[in-house]
Amino acid sequence: MSTVAKIALGVGLVTFAVFGGFVIIGGIxxxxxxxxxxxxxxILQGITQMSQQGKGTSVEAGKVNVRLAEPIxxxxxxxxxxxxxxxxxxxxxxxxxWYVVVHSDSQLNFRRKVYLDDVEVxxxxxxxxxxxxxxxxxxxxxxxxxxxRIPYFQIWTTTYSATNPTPPGIADLQxxxxxxxxxxxxxxxxxxxxxxxxxxxIEDRYKIYKWRGPLGLGEPSISILGEWALVYDPRDGSQILxxxxxxxxxxxxxxxxxxxxTHRYGRNKAIESVNWARVAExxxxxxxxxxxxxxxxxxxxxxxxxxxxxxxxxxxxxxxxAMDAQLVFDGDGKCWPxxxxxxxxxxxxxxxxxxxxxxxxxxxxxxxxTQGVVVRYTEPQAKYVVQPAAPWYNPLYYIAGKSAQFLTVxxxxxxxxxxxxxxxxxxGMRSQPLHKLAPTTGLRGLRARQERVINLxxxxxxxxxxxxxTPVEVDQAGMLCQFGLVPIDADRFDLLLGEEKTKPVxxxxxxxxTPTLPTAVNVTINNGRIExxxxxxxxxxxxxxxxxxxxxxxxxxxWLQMSxxxxxxxxxxxxxxxxxxxxxxxxxxxxxxxxxxxxVPITNVSxxxxxxxxxxxxxxxxxxxxxxxxxxxxxxYSDVYRSTGTVxxxxxxxxxxxxxxxxxxxxxxxTVAAGTYNYWVVSRTNDNRSATxxxxxxGTVK
Length: 702
What we know:
Layout: E1 2-4, E2 16-19, E3 22-25, E4 28-31, H1 45-48, E5 65-66, E6 74-82, E7 84-91, E8 97-104, E9 108-116, E10 119-121, E11 135-136, E12 150-151, E13 153-158, H2 171-176, E14 191-197, H3 205-208, E15 222-228, H4 253-262, H5 276-287, E16 289-292, E17 295-298, E18 304-307, H6 312-322, E19 326-329, E20 335-338, E21 348-350, E22 355-362, E23 372-379, E24 385-388, E25 392-393, E26 406-410, H7 417-431, E27 435-441, E28 453-457, E29 463-468, E30 473-474, E31 481-482, E32 485-487, E33 519-526, E34 529-535, E35 542-550, E36 560-561, E37 563-565, E38 568-573, E39 579-588, E40 600-603, E41 612-618, E42 622-628, E43 635-643, E44 652-659, E45 665-671, E46 675-685, E47 694-701
Parallel strand pairs: 5-7, 21-28, 23-26
Antiparallel strand pairs: 1-22, 2-3, 3-4, 6-15, 6-18, 7-8, 8-14, 9-10, 9-15, 11-12, 13-14, 16-17, 19-20, 22-27, 23-24, 23-25, 27-31, 28-29, 29-32, 30-31, 33-34, 34-38, 35-36, 35-39, 37-38, 39-40, 41-42, 42-45, 43-44, 43-46, 46-47
């Protein structure tokens, strides 16, 4: 943008000169800052130019726990995820670790979710954390869905109420530290949680104490997602102003502004200083239904997490930014926020009647330093972490296909993507319009203090509806007014077709990496034991578990451990002819395991002894084949084979399933034509296992 001096003479001839930083117009002296309106913005833009002074602790710090002598206190409203400061931490006489985390100075109406180290967890009725990552089984191994689930963390959360500022004490904590944590420890006016970490053997601590909490002992940080604070809604006849017991929870942006404006830890203004009728009007604007690409939602909602070291005026600006609001004072000095919504102007300013001088700032050849706006907001799908919304592209400057520069603004009080993009649009059109104006008017311009949109009639270039985007300044003599204007149209605060882009893909703040199984696993029986060879995963912190169990005992889950050395695992000696199951997994040094492999069946099969003393006696027309059955208890029957050659594979079975006793001498008579023949006997078991064939033994039949 470049400056074009346009001192227009709307009322007679006005001469001007600049002396020592002051502008002299028609003998009236105005401070140099009087003409700064054209480069400043009351609504939203100025907040982006503030230094870090006054902003205090980052909103993201509210998601974690800290251990400080005097940790930061937080004020919350709407739906927000809040961590907090650790005020007490100690081991009890049984070795359990306890710590107390104060979340907020706001009342908690409903606890929606609990997070331990960014992992959303489930709790049973007693407050035990039942999520797998925080439990072990009966063998003190990572719980993966089988066996007994043993929780190691328990959580209690307590808060105060509008009628009782003292939150109910946690009896289990008091019982664990008698005389040290007593009913006198009230923590009045706070919401806090108590976490109990169960005692565990030292050699197993790494399996459960593997988190990054504030104490550095491996305990997890805790944060809760809840519905915070009760606010006054002047539209609800059941609520009585000044009686918090009648107030209700709300996410309405205008109502949360009024709550913070009058809260003793907020702006601490008197409730009489707020124009509640106008607040009710603007609350209706915030509740209007807006439809986006993900469905419908209220026009403006708000989520508040304000640390005590943040300047209260800055915090109020962030609440106003969430609804693109202008702070207005009525004729009685009472204030109210005008939410971002177009309305037909009721104030008209014309060149011939009102404008004394005009200053303008115009774009040169449509150029701009930025071509759009990105608002960083609190995204529920990203576990209420601040994330960038999709960029809004300024149609006045963005050229499709070319790289764009974006103005990036943090508004953590927004928790809706469509809302973030609507605010980005209004900020973009306000901060980078085709031109900005700064008219100097007579006292009629004071009416602009109550307006956001005016109608300007100046010339063929500067005419139509304009938004007031700076304070209305009055000169020292009280005779002239000046303020900044930017063009506005009816769709300034709404997204046109195609303007809302797809929400960015969000990733977890914490990515849990589960170990992978070893590869090329080969399970065999060797030397009467189960052996396995494998290829490791390549991670140095991984060790491997191989287990086996008899098929008959599989329902008991009493798996036996195999010894594991690099690339090799082996069992104890196992009995023969018993089927076993074998499985394996990888385990990280943190204790996090992979899933078990598919079960592999295997049996240590023993060979049956062969028959002995095989003889063949050739007779006329037959041959007598005799042998002794093996002295093997697994023997069940014999098969007899015959061939004219000496290769067993070519032989023909002539007798099958010939029963007999262990060690018994048996014989058969084979009627056959004259010739020379070879015979084999094969001993077999009941499950059809075969011994090595005995033979060949030959005989000649006449």
